[in-house]
Structure formats: structure tokens, C-alpha cells
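If your schedule permits, I should be very grateful for your opinion on a structural question. I have a record of one protein: its chain in single-letter code and its fold written as C-alpha cells. Would you kindly read the sequence against the C-alpha cells and tell me how you understand this chain to fold? Thank you for your consideration; the sequence and its C-alpha cells are set out here.


***
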Amino acid sequence: MYHVYIVRCADDTLYTGIAKDLQRRLDEHNSLDKGAKYTRTRRPVTLVYSEEHPDRSAASKREYAIKKKMSKAQKIRLIASKQEAVTAESC
């Protein structure tokens, strides 16, 4: 299982990536030199969105769609829609 994720950086920008182990990848973004070059100077990062995909190919296609085809406003709406769904589930 692969995860497509979006993190919010300390400078309020968004970074999208894929990972097999989401928690390990978040730890790398926040503490090790293995984090993406983009996030190294924008720490700490906070996970704001994630979704699962069955294989790397599907995850890569979705990552590309989010990174290259969505505006920041569209990404914010995507994040908000996921948060609303989680809130509705917990009620």
C-alpha cells in the first residue's frame, strides 16, 4: 500500500509526496537530511492530507495530478473535504 500525502510547511506552503511508510516519511521530513530538499528549510511540516493507493503506479499518477494539475486553492479544498469527512465519521 502506498500513501499520497500533503504536508503544510512552516511557511504555509504545501508539499505533496508519496510513501510506503507514511510515519517514517514524515519523520524524515522533520528531522533527517533524507527529507525532500523543499521541506528541509521549511520545517516543521504537518500532515494535512493522505490517501491510500494499491501500488506505486497509482500513487505516482495521483501525486502528479495533485502537484501539477491542482492550484493551491484546489488543494486546500481537497484537504478541507477530507477533514470534513473525518469529522462527520467521528460524530
User: Anything to note?
Assistant: Residues 43 and 55 are 29 Å apart (CA to CA). The chain has a mean pLDDT of 92. The chain is about 50% helix and 25% strand. Residues 72-90 form the longest helix (19 residues).
